[in-house]
Amino acid sequence: MAGHGLLLASLLILSCFAETSFGTVYFSSLQRTLIVTASPKQGQVLKAGEDKITVNWALNTTFPAGTDSAYKTIKVKLCYAPASQVERGWRKTVDDLSKDKTCQFNIVARPYSASNKSFEWTVERDLPLGTYFVRAYAYNSEDAAVAFGQTTDPHKTTNLFNIEAISGRHLSLDVTSICFSAFSVLSLFGFFWYEKREAKSSQQK
């Protein structure tokens, strides 16, 4: 009887574990089977909303044939480098990909092909100031990540580039501000001139 109870308890524990772990993908479990390169050079500064990044990706052919048999989609992402994650919990790297905040910006998603693919991406205007790299994930038919590749080394110290955020001011706004200021000055001058003229007219009467 005790043995039966122990077996039942074990099954319940395994069942709970299966429910909590089902669908969970850990970055550490993925093979780095993709070769990914990007046009920015180490330390290069790109301007948000202006500069472009050319990304290339392909299967690393040193892996055995059939390695990519489950690959259906490639998703390329812009990722924070460690220097831009310090004391920023909302950018934290977590092994559980469903909780990972390293790669928050989508560059492109394409059907998988083993041959070399390329995409030119304009750096989005709303990207924050920071240091970045590029990573690509391969997804299976269930949209679960099964492999990856990235432009930097495992410690994320090489081939990093910087993005300079937009300050929030635009030329059109500056021109409008200048015109409004000039109009205000002229209006004020006109008001004083009119008041002075009226006062002079009153004195003459």
From TrEMBL:
What superkingdom heads the lineage? Eukaryota
Q: Tell me the GO BP annotations in alphabetical order.
A: nitrate assimilation; response to nitrate
Example GO molecular function: nitrate transmembrane transporter activity
Q: Which GO terms describe its cellular component?
A: plasma membrane
Q: Keywords for this entry?
A: Cell membrane, Membrane, Nitrate assimilation, Signal, Transmembrane, Transmembrane helix
Which sequence ranges are marked TM in the entry?
Answer: 175-194
Query: Any signal peptide, and if so, which residues?
Result: 1-18
Q: Which InterPro entries match?
A: Transptr_NO3_Nar2
Q: What does this protein do?
A: Involved in nitrate transport.
Protein family (similarity comment): Belongs to the NAR2 family.
Give the protein's recorded name: High-affinity nitrate transporter
Q: Organism, per UniProt?
A: Parasponia andersonii (Sponia andersonii)
